[in-house]
Write a structure and sequence with these properties.
This is Glycosyl hydrolase. The chain is globular, with a radius of gyration of 21 Å. Helix 3 runs parallel beside helix 5, helix 7 runs parallel beside helix 9 and helix 9 packs across helix 12. A hairpin with a 2-residue loop joins strand 14 and strand 15. The mean pLDDT is 98. The protein has an eight-stranded parallel barrel, surrounded by four helices. A three-stranded mixed beta sheet has the order 6-8-9, with helices on one face. With 458 residues, it is α/β, with parallel strands linked by helices. It is built from 15 helices and 19 strands. The chain has a single domain, classed as TIM Barrel (Alpha-Beta Barrel). Bound molecules: 6-O-phosphono-beta-D-galactopyranose (BGP). The site of 6-O-phosphono-beta-D-galactopyranose has 12 residues, from loops.
């Protein structure tokens, strides 16, 4: 029997834009996803947009009961900035205040630890139209929004989160065209990354001022970069991949400063963002209290096969090629590698290089396309998901035995949810959502997860 520490929590993560849905009179403003879906629905899988989702806005009471039925002792969701402040920096929407207070009270009334994230890829459209995260004004608007949240909900939230996977909107919005503004603009991308970090540090500062006994962190996808071989060129590729993908937010968030090698590389490409000298002090003095770590699959890289075209726009990937390791274990239903050992390596890295900071595994899960084919006698028999979770928990447990400071495991996600351009393609839930009538049914993994939580292990 694998047993976790007594204070370890079990639960799941979701986000506001992926679960709440939208009603005509709810007062929510557009975020970039609402706008983009209206402009280009063909980009979204099966043309299902963010207004549908799993209707948590209407059904949160019954959904919160599902948390108990699936053994949750912790739950993470996010506030939608565009619901609370429809234009991003103006009036507060009283219906949103009422909604979030009721949801948070409902979580607490069920005895569940509440983690609330302030930003999950969802910028209010009115701010995007003014330049979005490229502009410093968005940093200030975010700081105001964060302060309002701490004041209005600080009595209910156990752990705050400033951003979810902040590198993703940088890569997807300014390099790979998968998030709005879907452009290729490295200079803007680096500026956005810097402004996001500054906004995060300002939120940490505000949280510590307004609610001194609370904890605030950031959620990062800390995928280790594994080199193809120990050849110095492959090792260098992995080091630089990790600089851009992980350390760009990990180091300023936990250590209060950017790695010198990253600063030098950015400068060499003439991409140094606009900043003010006092910003660096804000970043230095306002480190997070804990980390959330999302882990799905490893990043494997090799030295680039070709020299970069000096005239092409800069991409961090000029320093590394993605590498498919022969014989890797796959989740064939999502096309992602499964490498459980990644959890252990992340834990070791945090222990050795980041002062063994407290952390939670805030996303880990198995996406499955066409999951209805696994239904038997009315229930999804997702043994593959149970195996996936067990495999990762074995590695997490091994790391904790060796001193890792991990306080909980949150699966992605509790009810199948909408996922950006992938929409409902990949199902991750412990609970199945039937999109035709919005009915919910607990999957086999949901019942297993309850036992896992009750036994504090398996
Ligand atoms: C993470 C995001 C989540 C979620 C998940 C699954 O990176 O934080 O919001 O969407 O990925 O992604 P997908 O549905 O594309 O498999």
């Amino acid at each position: 029997m694998i047993r976790f520490p007594d204070d370890f929590v079990w639960g799941s993560s979701t986000s506001g834009p992926q679960s709440e849905g939208r009603l005509p009179d709810d007062g929510k403003g557009d975020n970039t996803w609402d706008y983009w879906f209206r402009q280009a629905p063909e980009k979204f899988h099966n043309q299902v947009g963010p207004e549908v989702t799993s209707t948590f806005y209407e059904h949160y009471e019954t959904d919160l009961d599902y948390l108990l039925e699936t053994g949750h002792t912790a739950f993470r969701t996010s506030i939608q900035w565009s619901r609370l402040i429809p234009d991003g920096d103006g009036e507060v929407n009283p219906k949103a205040v009422d909604f979030y207070r009721k949801v948070f009270e409902g979580v607490k009334a069920r005895g569940i630890e509440l983690l609330v994230n302030l930003y999950h890829f969802d910028l209010p459209m009115a701010l995007e139209l003014k330049g979005g995260w490229v502009e410093r004004s968005t940093v200030l608007a975010y700081e105001r929004y964060a302060r309002l949240c701490f004041e209005m909900f600080g009595d209910l939230v156990d752990r705050w989160i400033t951003f979810n996977e902040p590198i993703v909107p940088v890569e997807c919005g300014y390099f790979y065209q998968l998030h709005y503004p879907a452009t290729v603009d490295p200079k803007a991308g680096i500026q956005v990354a810097y402004h996001t970090q500054l906004a995060s540090s300002l939120a940490v500062k505000a949280c510590h001022e307004l609610i001194p006994d609370s904890k605030i962190g950031i959620v990062l996808n800390l995928t280790p970069a594994y080199p193809r071989s120990q050849h110095p060129a492959d090792v260098k590729a992995a080091r630089i991949a990790e600089l851009f993908q992980a350390k760009s937010f990990l180091d300023p968030s936990v250590k209060g400063a950017y790695p010198q090698e990253l600063i030098d590389l950015i400068r060499m490409h003439d991409l140094t963002p606009a900043y003010q000298a006092e910003d660096l002090e804000v970043i230095r003095e306002n480190c997070v209290d804990y980390l959330g770590v999302n882990y799905y699959q490893p990043l494997r890289v090799a030295a680039p096969r070709y020299a970069a075209n000096p005239e092409a726009p800069f991409f961090p990937s000029v320093y590394f090629d993605h590498y498919e390791m022969p014989g890797r274990k796959m989740n064939p239903h999502r096309g992602w590698e499964i490498y459980e050992r990644g959890v252990y390596d992340i834990a070791q890295n945090l222990k050795k290089n980041y002062g063994n900071i407290e952390w939670l595994l805030t996303e880990n899960g198995m996406g499955v396309e066409g999951e209805e084919k696994f239904r038997k006698n009315g229930q999804i028999q997702d043994d593959y998901r149970i195996e996936f979770i067990k495999g990762h928990l074995l590695e997490l447990h091994r790391a904790i035995q060796e001193g890792a400071n991990c306080k909980g495991y949150l699966v992605w996600t509790f009810i199948d949810c909408w996922s950006w351009l992938n929409s409902y393609k990949n199902r991750y839930g412990l609970v199945e959502l039937d999109l035709t009538d919005q009915s919910r049914r607990i999957k086999k993994s949901g019942l297993w997860f309850k036992q896992l939580s009750q036994n504090n292990g398996f």
